[in-house]
Amino acid sequence: MRILFVGDIFGRPGRSIVQERLPELQSAHGVELTIANGENAAGGFGITSQIAEELFELGIDVLTTGNHIWDKREIIEYMNSANGNETSLARRLLRPANYPSGSPGFGWYQGRTRSGVEYGIINLQGRVFMASNDDPFRVADTLLRQITAKVILVDMHAEATSEKLALGWYLEGRVTAVLGTHTHVPTADEQVLRGGTAVQTDVGMTGPFEGVIGVQKELILQRFLTNMPSRFEPATNDVRLCATLIECDVETGHATGIQRIMLRQK
Ligand SMILES: [Fe+2]
Which residues contact 153 (CB under 8 A, 6 or more apart)? Predict the structure, then answer.
């Protein structure tokens, strides 16, 4: 089975290229499950219920997020609407599972693909150079005791490649893949660990590359040169889609292949 993970969708440019390139990517590779990180899908900061549903409509099965999840306050109500309603679309929008207990929403999802393969998705956030949340390693242990699916994909939303790779080794043989998000810079370190876990420390950004990690370069330069606050606006040019394709055995859940993808607009 093939799983596609689309890296951080940034603003309207990111959403546009998903709309343009995702269907052909899914059919060319026979993708059965599509996951994307959508925490920057709304103008580069957060996500709205409307944008989440628009992305589900485009063929994304589950959306993961990270530190920007609460940027658009309305998303809290959407997250809460999934409580007690396992079949709602809102249940497919995740926030990191290691957030303080009582946070709105869920950090994991278990579902079935159209052909009936059971799968689990876990969203975690790192603690190195980020807000201190619960230990993502121990939270993963706890969730893996609950999830019955063999095919399990983890989005580790974190700054440090070391923390993301360490989680890959920690979960070796227990999950299908550990993919990193958050830095918006794709790393060329994709590999399948001997135990059958595919790892890449950052999938990269789906958004405008003529800028600084998605934001207009002039605004970021201004911030570095003056230390003065400025309003960040999404860049617009050189839009690319970064994704990672995982191939796995549905019986064991073990990954058999991993491929990095970067596409430009046509
Ligand atoms: Fe992030």
Answer: 3, 5, 33, 35, 119, 120, 121, 122, 175, 176, 177, 179, 246
| 157 labelled catalytic | no
3-class state of residue 266 by DSSP: coil
pTM score: 0.97
Q: Residue 230: its pLDDT value, please? A: 85
39 Cα–ligand 1 center, Å: 7
Ligand 1 midpoint to CA 157 (Å): 6
Q: What integer pLDDT is reported at residue 83 of this predicted model?
A: 87
Block residue for tokens 């360490």: 166
CA distance 264 to 266: 6
Cα 183 to ligand 1 centroid, rounded to whole Å: 7
**Which of 12, 54, 20 has its CA nearest to residue 236?**
12
pLDDT along the chain (266 residues), means of 10: 98 98 98 98 97 98 98 96 90 98 96 97 98 97 98 98 98 98 98 98 98 96 94 95 98 98 96
Helix (H, G, I), strand (E, B) or coil at 225: helix
Ion ligand 1 neighbours (CB, 5 A) are 66-67, 182
Instruction: Report the pLDDT value the prediction gives residue 60, as an integer from 0 to 100.
Output: 98
Q: How far is the CA of 116 from the centre of ligand 1 (A)?
A: 32
Given 68, 157, 182, 254, the catalytic residue:
68
What's the gap between Cα 220 and its chain centre?
24
Q: In angstroms, what CA-CA distances link 235 with 63, 120, 167, 211, 215?
A: 23, 34, 32, 6, 5
